[in-house]
Amino acid sequence: MYMEIKSALDALRETAKLAGTLKEIADSAKLNEVRIAIQEQVIAAQERVLELQSLLQSDRETIAKQRDEISCLHRAEVERDKYKLRAVVPGGAVAYFAAANSETGEPEHWLCQPCFDAGKKVALKIQPNMRSMHCAVGGPSHAVSLLGDRGDDAGTRSLRINRA
Ligand SMILES: [Zn+2]
Prior knowledge:
Elements: H1 2-20, H2 28-81, E1 84-87, E2 94-98, E3 109-111, H3 113-117, E4 124-126, E5 132-135, E6 139-145
Antiparallel strand pairs: 1-2, 2-3, 4-5, 5-6
The protein binds zinc ion.
């Protein structure tokens, strides 16, 4: 881009030099010839400036878009780092856990693992019978048993991690 701008400026300097010779030309036919050459060079330079402005605008838009994407990815990474994948109960299915945050006042909570892995933050809600936690988006197939080694509640996820 900078070489193209330098090249366009060099062409304009040559045109200015040519314009400086106009008063030295006495022959009217030669004078017209030089005027036409100058006009053609000015028009070519204007077209080149427009092209370069268009390229510059396109680059600015690309940079702004990439900045937004980086910012979005950074926020997602920061958000994701708040959660740790762990078994809800020993020997039970896994979910993403966030400890209580005293700065934001956010209580400890669990997020649905299949939904979180798909990019959605869905809090698991403990059911009144205290036997499972349910996901409002994924339905029964995303439910997590709270019974652990005592067995799964009907319809809850059976995915388990090995106890270390
Ligand atoms: Zn879910």
